[in-house]
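Board notes, transcribed. Complex of a protein with farnesyl diphosphate.
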Amino acid sequence: MTTENSCTHVAIIMDGNGRWARKRGMPRTYGHRKGAENVVKITRSMKESGIRYLTLYAFSTENWQRSKDEVDALMQLLNEYLDKELKEIMDNNVRILFIGERNMLSPGIREKMAFLERESAQNTELTLCIALSYGSRQEIVAAVKRIAKKVADGELEISQITTDTVSDALYTKDIPDPDILIRTSGEKRISNYLLWQAAYTEFFFTDTLWPDFSKEELCEIIQAFKNRERRYGKN
Ligand code: FPP
């Protein structure tokens, strides 16, 4: 007898905002704005689908290399989003977490992030984890340094280091590994996202551009996931 997989955690690489805008003869930043609107809709759909954790790749460490205009526009959008949308999401029993290198972000944005995390800490329905200024290799390097320091300080023996030691030193220490990773826009890459955490994650790639990604498509993916065979290396 086969049993259906249950899905606790969905991670998404929200790609294709720029192409979505270009197809409409609009600037890239218009695509990001539509992408941010879709974040709100999809977060609601996740709650309705009973998903407990949603991790969104909003801004990668590599995204700092985009043009100053685009980075400024994304930061401006993020600022608005932290003020309005996330506040509303939080008021709907959603816990908000951020992962990434915070010291790259402005003090104003960091303060708002800390406020949302603090105020939503007791919310229970869904955890929305936003990857901001996030890079998985950088996260792993930071974890290695943390572990090395413990060894140097005599708090940990090298022989005591396990996969749990590494998991517990990552930004994601409080959340389970993703069951599903979705990348929109037709690209089939992981792009420095959750490299350690996605060891046994099921991948789904769709040609849909992020602003068009819908609840219906999400439900189809979750259904397809339920029927996939997950063996975790066993036979
Ligand atoms: C990829 O599209 C998307 C991003 C780099 C940013 C994702 C941001 C959002 C969805 C909006 C902001 C989110 C929050 C939480 C406020 P792209 O620009 O790489 O598109 P392209 O590949 O078509 O050029």
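The CA atoms of residues 12 and 182 lie 5 Å apart. Residues 14-19, 28, 32, 35-36, 39, 58-59, 63, 77-78, 81, 130, 185, 210 surround farnesyl diphosphate (CB under 6 Å).
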